[in-house]
Structure formats: structure tokens, C-alpha cells
């Protein structure tokens, strides 16, 4: 990977209008951050519940800023007005960039990406926020793979400074430059990396999760592991981090990593999150994961 210096200068235009597909943990966060930094964004989901959650998330973050005196109520209204919640593709022919943030499932992503490609112009850049799935694989059904790439935010979006911009085999320089410029506009630091399952950060993070899982399988108490890692200096331990990420999302991503690196990330490493997933304990998103949040 290379730090994305110089890319922004190559951008052919400013991003004036954006759209995000999926209003979940990540989509809601991306909509908030874009709106907060001044770029209007359509936030599309297939479920009204999803949209309500995304808007609630933005409202909570903004209300905190108002309480702390860092934002006026008027400005809060302006930011919220820049998020346009929708269940349809109306107006998608008028956006410069679309960020796809639906579930981490290659089949669902293939169908959503193909669908949105039919709704935007030939100039629109389509980015995916996938955590792990190869960009070249996701590009397979697309007619304009040159307009497609990865734009990988981290959770929580408003706090985490890094964005991985992932270049597929056919991605154009225009697409990279535009997405780097958009990331910068959102106050993030972009790095441009090559394509492979997990990209850069998750190739470091998932072996760490696998190490955690093996310790639990060997009989360690997950709360003790969390305490130790916090004492060591990390902001949170692996079990708590999995709850924040979403166990369901983590399990899907682990599967992609196990398939991508079968000799290093085999199935037996993922035991801890699999048990949680089968018990439908998805983490903070449904109030129960390794810990209870009710
Ligand atoms: P989530 O489950 O919180 O949200 C997914 C949303 O997508 C839901 O609201 C769902 O209704 C919606 N959706 C499903 N199909 C759709 C469709 N066809 N069109 C529009 N919306 C649709 O998931 P998330 O954690 O936000 O993850 C989204 C993506 O971001 C995944 O690819 C994930 O790997 C990636 N990601 C997640 C994290 C994390 O920490 N959670 C971090 C980085 C990247």
C-alpha cells in the first residue's frame, strides 16, 4: 500500500453529491460523516427499520455535539438536512459517488452492485465498503469495472481516521482520485492498497481474532482476555471489539478470510464467534453478544 499523497490532485471533479446503500452500523456512520463534512448524501436501505436506525445514530451524535456546545441547533438541522433517507433509487442519476455498505455477503453484494450500476450515470464511481471480499471478485458482474473500487471505512466511522482505498485490476485512476478526494473531504486519511481478501488492516486484525478464539477454545475466560489487553494499553479487548463490529458481520468476514487463506485462517480458528452467531448474539446491534447491553 501507498499513502495516498498526490492522488487528490488527480481528481477530475469535486464530490458534490453522494449516496450510500445500507443504513446499518457503517452506512449510517458514512451518511453522518459525509453530511457533517458538507457533502449531501442519499441513504438507501431496503427496510424502514434500517433507515430509522441510521437517522437515530446521526441524531445522537449531533445531539452530543450540541450538548457540549460544539455545534448550534441550527447547524445540527443543516447537517441532518444533508442526509436524504430513501427506500428507492430516485435521483441516483445525479450522484458523483455511491458507497455500498450492505451485508457482507458476496451474492447480495453482486446483485446490489449490478442493480445500482443500472441507476447511475456512466461517470458515477461505485465504491464498496466490504471488509474482506476481493474487489476483483465483486467487480465480476459489472459493465464498468473501471468505475469500481473499495472504500473501506472503520467502525465507528466518525472516530476512525483511516480509509483503505482498494484498487481492483480494472479500476481507473479517475475512480481512485475521486474516492481519495472524498475521503479527505470527510476528514479521513486514505491509503491506496492492492486487492486481496481482507486488504491490509483486516489481514492483521483477523489473525488476532483467530488467536483470541484459540485461547477461548483452550479454556481462557474471554472477560479476562479483554481486561488483559486493555491493561496492556489497547482501547478495548477482542471480545468487546467483536461486539462493536457485529458478530454476524465478523462471521461472514471470517468465512471470506478462511477461503482466501485456507492454510492460515482455517475454519477451526473461528470457534468463539461461531458459537455467538448460532445463539443469535450479534453484539451491540441486538443488545447481546459476548456481553449484555440491555
Ligand atoms: P449492518 O448489518 O449493520 O447493516 C447492513 C444494512 O444493509 C441493513 O440496514 C440492511 O437492511 C441493509 N441492506 C441489506 N440489503 C440491502 C440492499 N439490497 N439495499 C440496501 N440496503 C440493504 O452491517 P454493517 O456492519 O453496517 O456492514 C455493512 C458493510 O460494511 C459490510 O460489507 C461489512 O463487512 C462492512 N464493514 C463493517 C464494519 C463493522 O465494524 N461493522 C467495518 C468496516 C466495514
Automatic annotation (TrEMBL):
Family the UniProt entry places it in: In the N-terminal section; belongs to the enoyl-CoA hydratase/isomerase family.
Organism of derivation: Microbulbifer rhizosphaerae
This protein's name: enoyl-CoA hydratase
Domain 3-hydroxyacyl-CoA dehydrogenase C-terminal residue range list: 198-293
Domain 3-hydroxyacyl-CoA dehydrogenase NAD binding residue range list: 18-196
Amino acid at each position: 500500500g501507498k499513502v495516498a499523497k498526490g492522488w487528490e490532485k488527480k481528481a477530475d471533479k469535486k464530490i458534490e453529491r453522494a449516496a450510500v446503500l445500507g443504513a446499518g452500523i457503517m452506512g449510517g456512520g458514512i451518511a453522518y460523516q459525509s453530511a457533517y463534512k458538507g457533502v449531501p448524501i442519499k441513504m438507501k436501505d431496503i427496510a424502514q427499520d434500517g433507515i430509522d436506525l441510521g437517522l437515530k445514530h446521526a441524531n445522537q451524535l449531533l445531539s452530543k455535539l450540541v450538548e457540549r456546545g460544539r455545534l448550534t441547533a441550527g447547524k445540527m438541522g443543516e447537517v441532518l438536512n444533508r442526509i436524504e433517507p430513501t427506500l428507492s433509487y430516485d435521483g441516483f442519476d445525479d450522484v458523483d459517488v455511491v458507497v455500498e455498505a450492505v451485508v457482507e455477503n458476496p451474492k447480495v453484494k453482486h446483485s446490489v452492485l449490478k442493480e445500482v450500476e443500472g441507476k447511475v450515470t456512466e461517470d458515477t464511481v461505485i465504491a464498496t465498503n466490504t471488509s474482506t471480499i476481493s474487489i476483483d471478485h465483486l467487480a465480476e458482474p459489472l459493465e464498468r469495472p473501471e468505475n469500481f473500487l473499495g472504500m473501506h471505512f472503520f467502525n465507528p466511522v466518525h472516530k476512525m481516521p483511516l480509509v483503505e482505498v482498494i484498487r481492483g485490476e480494472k479500476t481507473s485512476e479517475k475512480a481512485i482520485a475521486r474516492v481519495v478526494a472524498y475521503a479527505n473531504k470527510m476528514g479521513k486519511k486514505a491509503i491506496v492498497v492492492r486487492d486481496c481478501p481482507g486488504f491490509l488492516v483486516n489481514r492483521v486484525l483477523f489473525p488476532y481474532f483467530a488467536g483470541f478464539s484459540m485461547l477461548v477454545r483452550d479454556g481462557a475466560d474471554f472477560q479476562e482476555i479483554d481486561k488483559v489487553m486493555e491493561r496492556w494499553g489497547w482501547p478495548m479487548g477482542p471480545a468487546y471489539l467483536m461486539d462493536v463490529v457485529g458478530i454476524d458481520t465478523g462471521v461472514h468476514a471470517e468465512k471470506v478470510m478462511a477461503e482466501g487463506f485456507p492454510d492460515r485462517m482455517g475454519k477451526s480458528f473461528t470457534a468463539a464467534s461461531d458459537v455467538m452467531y448460532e445463539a443469535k448474539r450479534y453484539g451491540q446491534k441486538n443488545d447481546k453478544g459476548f456481553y449484555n447491553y440491555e
